[in-house]
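Lab notebook, design round three. We kept the backbone fixed and only want residue identities now. Task for the bench partner: fill in a sequence for the structure below.
Input structure tokens:
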């Protein structure tokens, strides 16, 4: 197989929370597999999604620290380790929200700049701009902030300019053989993704009420006829947290379950029967063995 015109590279999508990174990634990939995860990075890259088309392969990777600026922003700003996460990628896609430019955006930019990589600036959510005439002067302001390889107004939600962004990304992929088989869309197991979907829905619905330490373990993951049966065990640290998670008359857990099931059906392309259980596992986060039993064996 001739490989001279094959391209393959690592791309990081970064930006402060809520600017639309996951939405953008999902539309770039054409399917929902990006789920924010707090599992610490231990490998060279945490691959979120792989897109292989014709002669090119784009590997989108997670860069912890570069998109969670909201929490303990100052610590993160000081944390030089974060910049190591982007050292090995070929391109950074930096996402901002319309014409807003916040301190957090600035911090993300400062981190990116330490990497001296090509950066494409995506000005997202332009569908929400009421006065479109503000866009152009603003793009000019943004252009002065760094030497961006390109600046692109995008609506990830409406898929406006997403294909154009992909074309831009391709320009920066090195000539290389593909690293992953064509059919592979992520390096994470389906079980892992299922657990992450449940965790994402919990954080979405209860993020403010529940602390960090929630773990989801997939107990069953099996096709039975046309239906994929998934059972997930959710571990919390205290009884009170279990009550919050279950909610009155089980309503909250049911709502989390139906959101999660919808995403799973899209992702696994199958009807899904999802069962959720909540267990109190006191102090698990301090117990190395317990962590290991929950799949955190690489920390
Ligand atoms: P992330 O935290 O950067 O990953 O942001 P998300 O992808 O989770 O998006 C945050 C919110 O912004 C969600 O409610 C999205 O539906 C919404 N959003 C993302 N992109 C767009 C866009 O282009 N236009 C509009 N109107 N909303 C968007
Ligand atoms: Mg996200």
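Proposed sequence:
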């Amino acid at each position: 197989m001739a490989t001279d015109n094959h391209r393959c590279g690592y791309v990081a999508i970064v930006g402060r929370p809520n600017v639309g990174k996951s939405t953008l990634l999902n539309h770039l990939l054409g399917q929902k597999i990006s789920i924010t995860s707090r599992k610490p990075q231990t490998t060279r890259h945490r691959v979120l999604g792989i897109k292989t088309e014709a002669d090119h392969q784009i590997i989108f990777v997670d860069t912890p620290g570069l998109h969670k600026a909201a929490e303990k922003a100052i610590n993160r700003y000081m944390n030089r380790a974060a910049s190591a996460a982007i050292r090995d990628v070929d391109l950074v896609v930096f996402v901002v929200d319309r014409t807003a430019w916040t301190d957090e955006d600035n911090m993300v930019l400062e981190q990116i700049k330490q990497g001296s990589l090509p950066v494409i600036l995506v000005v997202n959510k332009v569908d929400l701009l009421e006065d479109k005439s503000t866009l152009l002067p603003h793009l000019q302001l943004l252009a002065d902030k760094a030497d961006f390889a390109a600046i692109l107004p995008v609506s990830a939600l409406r898929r406006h300019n997403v294909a154009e962004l992909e074309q831009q990304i391709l320009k920066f992929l090195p000539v290389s053989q593909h690293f992953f088989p064509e059919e592979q869309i992520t390096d994470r197991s389906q079980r892992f993704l299922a657990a992450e979907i449940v965790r994402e829905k919990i954080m979405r619905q209860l993020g403010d009420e529940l602390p960090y330490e929630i773990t989801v373990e997939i107990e069953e993951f099996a096709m039975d006829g046309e239906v994929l049966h998934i059972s997930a065990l959710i571990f919390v640290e205290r009884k009170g947290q279990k009550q919050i998670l279950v909610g009155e008359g089980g309503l909250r857990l049911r709502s989390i379950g139906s959101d999660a099931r919808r995403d799973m059906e899209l992702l696994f392309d199958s009807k899904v029967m999802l069962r959720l259980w909540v267990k109190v596992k006191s102090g698990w986060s301090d117990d190395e063995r317990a962590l290991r039993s929950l799949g955190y064996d690489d920390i």
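Keep this in mind before ordering anything: Residues 42 and 299 are 7 Å apart (CA to CA).
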